[in-house]
Amino acid sequence: MALDGTGWYRSHTLKLPHNLRLLMLSPSSPENNSVENLWDESRKESLHNCVFDSLDALENHLEAVMQHDNRS
Known about the structure:
Blueprint: E1 2-3, E2 23-24, H1 34-45, H2 55-71
């Protein structure tokens, strides 16, 4: 599992299963974190100049955008 290097992911008491390893990315390496690319594209393509009335409205918009992208 790749983690972005944020401090709250670190625990000295965490016991990992034998088949799981943690890969800590540098905190300053957004290009290695695929979620960062998703947000970058979303901001450029579908969230620019948008104002939402509620968090639910934002979530609905993001779901619609992601469903549309998966169909393409």
